[in-house]
Design goal:
heterodimer; A: 138 residues; alpha+beta; five-stranded antiparallel β-sheet; 37% helix; B: 217 residues; 5 helices; 41% helix; globular
Chain lengths: 138, 217
């Protein structure tokens, strides 16, 4: 029951981070990643509009996709960033992991003085923090 | 969220945050101000603007940290139903968890609110010098308590918004959650008033999302 991939989409739909989370994760090329990121962003927005029930929480959209071969969990922050994680079916704690990753994002990426908001994340500290989270939950 | 739970959340988050030395913090900020004075040649207006800009860069990052840390600590801030709610969160959770400050909300209208800051950690060692009207013949020297010298013909110190960085932080943070605000430091203990007051005015609530095209008619 392992995690497969993590990707982070910014407010405008651009992919700012993607990485495999284990050895089992299939390899996905960079262009495919960019496509996945923007497609997910649009689907998330359309799902919020298409929903028959308006949620009280403004963060309406795709939260969880369960398919035969994988499960996908998305957490959209109030500031518009989407943290998306995929895993093999049966994996638990997806929501918790996403929230921990959000905290690492705030502590490692945002506090990096050279990081510009909405830009691709290239922070060593963030990568290590996600590795630590994976070690804890994986 | 009720007012008492907001205050309790602020205290919880404050206890979880790593702490820094207050004096180091205040003196570092003071030296930042001194550098700005040198860089901008005592142009007080420009310095106020720069402080606001610096605060803005800080604010856009603080909001994510606040939201992230409250999620993992089981505090559900929840979408704010009105401006007063937002003001309470900024005052009781925001200022409390990052700076340990007690802050009160007042004068809430539909489009604005005021924040009263009681102790200001940034200005604990500061005294603004007297504004001197300079004559070249009559060089008057005054000192602020950091020991920095200020020669006469000088800038109008009463216009310096020493803690203007807070205004920028509030503006930046609220901008990230789609609220466009303007903040102003209207009363300042350093300038002789009895309390620090920041006035926040809501300009507009920006909308993001699928955009107008996808809405049903």
């Amino acid at each position: 029951m392992t995690f497969l991939h993590l990707f982070i989409v910014n407010k405008s739909g651009g992919l700012i981070h993607h990485r495999p989370l284990s050895k089992h994760a299939p390899h996905i090329g960079t262009n495919d990643w960019l496509r996945i990121g923007s497609t997910f962003h649009s689907l998330h927005a359309i799902a919020a509009e298409a929903s028959p029930v308006k949620s009280k929480h403004k963060n309406d959209g795709i939260e969880f996709i369960e398919a035969e071969g994988l499960i996908l969990c998305c957490f959209q922050t109030r500031t518009g960033i989407k943290f998306v994680i995929t895993a093999e079916p049966g994996t638990r704690n997806l929501q918790k992991v996403l929230r921990e990753i959000y905290v690492s994002y705030a502590d490692c990426t945002l506090k990096d003085p050279f990081y510009e908001l909405e830009m691709p994340i290239r922070c060593e500290l963030f990568t290590q923090a996600v590795d630590d989270i994976m070690r804890q939950y994986g | 969220m009720s007012k008492s739970s907001i205050t309790a959340s602020g205290h919880t988050l404050w206890s979880k945050m790593p702490k820094a030395n207050t004096e180091l913090f205040a003196l570092t900020y003071g030296s930042l101000i001194t550098e700005l004075l040198k860089d901008y040649d005592n142009d007080i207006e420009e310095i106020n603007n720069q402080l606001e800009r610096i605060g803005h860069s800080i604010g856009i990052r603080c909001i994510d940290e606040l939201l992230a840390k409250s999620e993992v600590n089981g505090i559900d801030i929840g979408p704010c139903s009105n401006l007063e709610n937002t003001a309470e969160v900024v005052a009781k959770i925001g200022f409390r968890c990052f700076l340990g400050m007690t802050c009160d909300v007042a004068n809430v209208t539909e489009k604005s609110f005021s924040l009263f800051l009681y102790e200001n950690p940034l200005s604990i060692f500061v005294e603004l010098p007297e504004t001197t009207n300079g004559d070249d013949d009559d060089r008057h020297q005054s000192f602020n308590s950091d020991g920095k010298e200020n020669s006469g013909g000088g800038p109008d110190w009463s216009k310096l918004k020493y803690s203007n960085v807070y205004c920028g932080v509030i503006r930046g943070a609220l901008e990230q959650i789609n609220m466009k605000v303007e903040c102003d430091f209207v009363r300042d203990v350093l300038r002789g008033h009895d309390v620090n007051e920041i006035k926040v005015e809501l300009k507009e609530i920006m909308s993001d999302g699928a955009g107008q095209d996808y809405h049903e008619e």
